[in-house]
Amino acid sequence: MQVPIGSIPGELIKEVRNRKWTFFLLFVAISSLLLAIGFVWPEKYTSTVTIFVDDQNIIRPLMEGSAVTTKITDRSSEAKQLLFSHRVLSKLASNEEIWGDVSTNKINERVAVLKRKVRFSKLSDNYFNINYKGTDPVRTFKVAQKLGQLFIAESDDKKKEESRSAYSFVDKQVKTYQAQLKQSVDTLKDFLSNNVEGTEDSVNRRMTELQSQLEQADLELKELLTQKSSLGSQMKGAGKLLAQTRQGNPYTSRINSLQEKLDVLRLSYHDSYPDIVSLKQQINDLHKALDEDLKSEKKPTERTNSEYNPLYLELESELAKTQTRIRTVNTRISSLKELLITANGRMERFQSNKAKLAELTRDSDVNRGIYEDLLKRREKARVSMHLDIEGQGLSYKIHEPAEYPLNPIGLQFFHFAILGLIMGLVLPLGIFAGLYQIDPRIRIGSVLEENTGIPVLTTIPYLNTPLEARKNRYKTILIFSFGIILIIAYLGITWLKIKGEI
What is the C-alpha to C-alpha distance for residues 162 and 409, in angstroms, rounded to an integer? Predict the structure, then answer.
């Protein structure tokens, strides 16, 4: 049964006393195993190269706005990708000075090993470390040194390749948009040549003029029709023949005179004109006076003769002129309507072509804007390419070169030696404590009482006989002797190994 935690130390001491040889053999086996592992454990060496990112040289402010120096948004990530690229590692793995054998299979194996052993660490925004860990100090130093050189060379080549690619791309786009711009300009020119409807303002002005002339003609036609009706009425009232008498009446001559004036005014004005109203009133008054005069006197014998009324002839002439003008105005109205229909058709064609013209103009403007912008970008790309070729702009430099590793790192032989002694003592105790937890035997009376509920009156300890006590004592002395010899030999081997004697 499980032993209470508080009782474990005492039970461990009892178990060690009862199993001295088991404890001793476990100590020997564990310490010897760790010491042997220390013998075969390879020593590891490390060498580090510190890289500095130079992006604040004097060229950058001088060329601001005229050229674009190569930038890296995430420098550590970009540098890590470049460092672990197959191109860099394969060049390192195929270096005959470092590895000797340069066969293809060996190169592929070394690339896989380098990916595991090379470490990249970021110190700050402008500094990173390239670290290599190996078992041979000379090779470790050479690999770290070569890694720094290859990284610098590849970063320079990548910058130059990137700037050349950017220039080639922009130059290709310039030529493409140059052809598109020429095509759009030619299309717009052909469209304007085939569609000469004028501008929208000119068409609107023409339609407005025609509409205004049509309205004036309609108004003039109404006036002429009114004038024609008035002339007809006047001709009916005037009479075609004029009767004359030898012996006249003063009222009659006066009425005829006023009637002539009235007829003349009616040619130009309506009956509501004030002068016409006044003349009508005067004529009515004269007619009344004439009637009264005729009633008061006897009619004398008169001889009359007839002739054409001059007023009637004049009115008839005016009527003929008015009819001629009416026909002329009708003809003009028909012509204006036809011209207005033509103008409306022209406006419809203009509106239908307006969208196409706007689209062609927009395409031409867009292509021209992009083309001009690409021309500027191409010049910037040209200058940027020359900057990268000259080694300006962003560049990597070796801040601290690789150093030859003098001392190994990580777990070394003396670590395993110390760990062997400690683990040789601790692990057997841990094994015994674990066995207590799974051993079904009852070792303590209180455990039996707690688990079964049976009261325990007392416990009887195991007593050794005098012979067993002497044997136990001899066994203890023998084990301590062997332990001291083993520890002395253990420490001696450790000392010789550290000194390099073995």
Answer: 40
